[in-house]
Amino acid sequence: MLTEGMYIADRYEIIGKIGTGGMSDVYKAKDHILGRNVAIKVLKQEFSEDVNFVTKFRTEAQSAAGLEHPNIVNIYDVGSENGMYFIVMEYVEGITLKTYIEKKGQLSYKEAVSIAIQVGRGIEAAHNKHIVHRDIKPQNIIISTEGKVKVTDFGIARAANNHTLHSDVMGSVHYTSPEQARNGFVDGKSDIYSLGIVMYEMVTGRVPFDGDSTVAIAIQHLQEEMVSPGSFAPRLPVSMEKLIMKCTQKNPDRRYESISDLLVDLKKVLISPDDDFVTIIPVGQDKTRMVQRDEVDVILKETNEAYYREQDEDTELDEEEDEEGGFLNPRMEKAVTIMGIVAAVIIVIIIVVILGSLLGWFRFGGGKDKDKDNNLPIENNIDGEEDQEDKDLVTMISVLGMTEEEAEAELKKMNLGIRVVGSAASDEYEEGQIVHQNVEKDDKVPKNTTIEVTICSGPGEFEAPSVVGKDGEQAQGIIENMGLVPKRDFAYSDTVPQGKVISQTPEGGTSVKKGDTVTYIVSQGTETAKVPDVTGKSESEARETLANAGFNNVTSTSEYDDTVAEGLVIRQSFSGEYKEPGTTISLVISMGKQTTYYSFNKDYKKPAENATATVELYKAESDEDVKPAVQDNGTTITISASNIADVNSGTLVINWSWTEKVSVPNEDGTVTEKEETKTKTDEYNVTFQQQ
After folding, report:
1. Mind listing the pLDDT tens digit for each residue in 97-116?
2. CA distance 343 to 340
3. CB 136 within 8 A of CB 194
4. Is residue 516 annotated as part of the catalytic site, yes or no?
5. Which of 74, 82, 416, 645 has its CA 20 to 30 A from that of 107?
6. Which one of 77, 135, 516, 561 is the catalytic residue?
């Protein structure tokens, strides 16, 4: 087993395992030469040790490597290393069509046609190079994350099918063609049959033939008529239904001549889905007698084990070309011969019994029977034919109300079969129970007749009650009494009183079935919300918190606070109370600690008109400058300072400075005028007054 980080061929680094199958394991890897992700399919050990299988496997893979098409998972490389054989393929990110169908159930016909066209284009490219896939199934069809559809495992299936049975054959046999099932000649029409089965599963969500073993399913492909896909998909257009039926004809000659012809009709379905343009070749008038089910069971019981035991012991199947140019498995030919002999013997026995009854050869008990009621001998019935017919008929019972499994068990006791042909709604029966049978109770039918039944898809439809405006408890009772499932939710409403129903889904009058859920919304009245506490937050944070709680109307005022820092919320309205959204919330924002101003006014007279003053204030207790604010209006100096309550007195010093013109006598007796700076200092003892 490969693990993460290992290298193959010194080039491909294993990233992880992404899948496994009957023959191989698939890994995601990194191609370090081309710098891209790839998928590597590694053969399992039991196949790698078989030289003949490996040779055929490599040959077919190398042939398929020549295919390059947007709808084919391309093969990049084929190789081996240390006895391990691998194929390097294009890595597609996505899921298989099988997984997609399982997730979605039934696909719309448009989506199914779109997928089928892309698959068909890939198959067409292969058929043009004379490569038949042989294993078309949803597991081999990948839908990428971009919606591109790609087919994988071209050529690989041929190596497997021509060599041995493998563990994933149970998945493949649901899609195998009748000619593959009988190991006959296989060509492109076999891929058309398999694609038809894939389309059937896409539009119905189920495969047409199923069983407990591969042999049982293969026999159904060979001889049982397929239930029309329209029985399970009533809205399927007639063109799509007939197209699928034409693809899945048991006789290859009645299918599409080529995949290209099929693609033409697929495109027509998208354009004219309701036009009946698909033509199916009529079945010939002479019908070959089909082997009955009980005969098949006997034949299979006697031949199946021997046939597959031989096949396991000799895994290399010898293909011999028959007289008509096809290939026939000699062991299968032997089995078919045995089946024919046994069937002939059974037919002879039946003829002898019928003739013996008519001619009176078989008369046990002295040729007379006793009347059970009167214990009297009764003469041999001269109407022997009527007695024999009665013995071959059974009286039908009622299987209504039974599940398919229960009905199958009861009918099997009567040598009758069962087939589900559709579904229908019913109020009388539960989902999964039989609501109709094509043979009425007490009617006589031949043994081995297949009884067709219809399964209940659930209750019938009726109008949902309207509970809007009603009390919540009353609404629940109304819904339950109608056989519906109530689901209650709550919501606030400004218009609907508390406890009353605001709305419901589905609405009143809408078609519903018993067991459906009706969701109704009960009013909680006007919406209220708890007002969050935002004290201590900044104003912006407080507004954001309140808005998140549904309160967008916020007002604010400011005031001083010695304990709350500036800009934070001191207090608010409605903290912790439940209020309607839209209620106005008031906030008080701190301006911080209040500043106390102290000042005094000093009237003065300037010593000169142009005199200016500088002011200094000294504390009485220290020499530190208080840095007061000074205002001078020309006659009065106002000095103010903040928060100096502990300094209530000091010395005010006013230094005056001005210039004056003076006359200076010269030596020659003349006078020169010049400006001279004058100064003056005034000192005052001051006491501050609080404002």
Report:
1. 999 999 988 999 999 999 99
2. 5
3. yes
4. no
5. 74
6. 135
